């Protein structure tokens, strides 16, 4: 079975890449100015040099860097990402606690941007040179060019403050004590604004790409063949043009999917969404090295996983890849 | 005489504003009878395909019917609504196209694509559609139709894909088959098979065929009647025999002469024997590393190739696609690295050289590429494109540009062309620019890889004449790689016939044409469309060299 060895080879490469990222991140973080012990001591109101030394010794910060790295790597291999001195919790627990909220947000944004983007792009391609097509393209250009934080603030202003349709921030209504379906509905309501905000940019990108791709595919010979068969325009659009036009979209969707953990820092901060992004922001501010490294690791892991997944999906979508695989 | 199946009456199709002429097709009338093969012949831009597109309702955007009618069974199809037209397409008129490589949807299995024809017209159940698809693939004689049904287009060869296209066009037994240059992109032997298939199916089913081509060789093979078009107008029309034997119009005559249907290269004086280039024991194997789902593959492109090329000599390398002929050319120019063997130019082994020495020697070999559209950078002015080579080798810019203008003049273009971009030139003109670019480095050897294959026949003849003149003027040797034996016959002194990476025959061009020794060479020669049988004449004219 040649597939198995190939897949194993892929996974092996991924592990090496992941370890390299880990080492690189480790040195990068330690090259940054700032001393976690000083931050902690400062917050505790202590300025005593001896207290700082004690802190450093307790967390192993007095050791030479290679030793620190060695210890850290050893920990990662046993799924121990260290202890967050700031939050007084193991890093892994912290991340796993926040991960669902982030995945829910980014997953929803991914789904919204991909489905609506392809839909809008298809419509724009079918209505090229007509006002409705131009309108779609105008809107997508607007979303493409508008900064995310501004969209976020305006969305809050319009839909929460003025219209009062949707909650402005948070994950669920505080103190409402909903359970079961009511809780799910409450979360979904809170999810709408951040997810749409986060998805807008990629939706615009998908729209433009789908349209361009469909227009160029529609010039190809096999579309003329399909018309010569007497097929109805709708069938030609769907089965012949759209299917071929979606191939480049898969690549882009893979890129977006890879950012699912690390890509929502801004949105989570604006909407006070209790996810990884905000955790990362806090960890950065507090020089919480172990936590930061742990989050980076998960981001990298997800990017690599989605890269591999994209490869597989691409192969399923385009039978020609099998032949010309590099 | 019975009522014609298709009657085109005074048809004119207007081109969008800014085109080089007002009408794609100007006041054209002709008829097509049931069971008849009509060849519409013309060069690119003659408007030969436009009428067919109008009948199918597949005119490109911007091209509109300005006047006239197209009566199919007495009904004007130009006034049909889109829905009525769709009913006609596929069911009563089938169509096949030039490029089998791109005419099938790459993501759909062949069987599905054939079944779609029935689906489009709401016929049969899905199961019956698949059965019919299989029968059709059998009818067009596709090897192993069962597995072809499940194959994706990329898994089939060009000829096989064209058979699939024909199966698709014939699925609903149309009364009219429109074939738009269906064999132009195919190898000669495959072309002969497809022509035979079309003719055979036409006879068996009694269909009418409108066969659009630029090639009078094909006309001689297949046509009952011919209609010759030029610049949107019909210049000559008549029975195929009459037009081929007694063409009335100068243009028709020129087209027929441009393709000597029974070409035999003239006897040429043996060239200077002193070799310029000698190739020994050249091997090249392409290896693709296996992908996720694919084991490794090896393709032998060159297998023990040996030949010598004399100064001032033109050597033709002839073979079909996949024969390794282009790889050989690329190895000689240095674009590909052979696995083994020697390439000696002026008795220096190029493969042993590196760095500056290699650069100096490699200059002596220049290449002219097949596609005049893709081989010039669209953003670089023509003069600069020619001067770049010399500038890279240390010639001052002003001098190189002056030289470029001279070279443009030499290849028959105006010196002012230097200031224009490639897109302002026609295919033939671009190929002249490509030749000027090759000459700029003062080479001793030019490798022309299918240099005229993308050009119209009349342009082909001009470019060949130019190459022949320049060869004498600049004392060049020419390595002429082509799939087209007719072209090779016009220019080559000696020929090498390649098949699957090996040289199967090697010798004087005239001799090979008159008495081919290898079975494959004979097959190639017999496949040339419109070629008469020369077997009787061969022994008498064959001469030893």
Report on this structure.
The complex is a heterodimer of chains A (326) and B (545). Chain A has 326 residues and is mostly helical. Chain A folds into two domains: 2-91, no CATH class; 92-324, Orthogonal Bundle (MetI-like fold). Chain A is 76% helix and 1% strand. Chain A is built from 15 helices and two strands. Chain A has helices spanning 2-31, 36-44, 49-58, 65-77, 91-126, 131-145, 148-162, 180-217, 221-228, 233-245, 247-258, 265-270, 276-285, 289-317, 321-324; strands at 83-84, 89-90. In chain A, helix 5 (91-126) packs parallel to helix 14 (289-317), helix 7 crosses helix 8 (180-217) and helix 9 (221-228) packs antiparallel against helix 10. The model of chain A has no long low-confidence stretch (mean pLDDT 83). Chain B is α/β, with parallel strands linked by helices. Among the domains of chain B are: 102-158, no CATH class; 275-509, P-loop containing nucleotide triphosphate hydrolases (Rossmann fold, 3-Layer(aba) Sandwich). Helices cover 36% and strands 24% of the residues of chain B. Chain B contains 20 helices and 20 strands. In chain B, the strands form four sheets. In chain B, strands 6-7-8-3-9-10 form a six-stranded mixed sheet. In chain B, strands 16-17-18-13-19-20 form a six-stranded mixed sheet, sandwiched between helices. Chain B has a four-stranded antiparallel sheet with strand order 2-1-4-5. In chain B, helix 13 (382-392) packs parallel to helix 15. The longest helix of chain B has 18 residues, at 188-205. The model of chain B is unreliable at 533-545 (pLDDT under 50).
N-end to C-end Cα span of chain A: 19 Å
Distance separating the two termini of chain B: 57 Å
Task: Work out the oligomeric state of the chains in this entry.
Answer: heterodimer
Q: Please provide the ordered H/E string of secondary-structure elements of chain A.
A: HHHHEEHHHHHHHHHHH
* Main β-sheet, spatial strand arrangement of chain B: 6-7-8-3-9-10
State the helical fraction of chain B.
25-40%
The secondary-structure class of chain A comes to mainly alpha
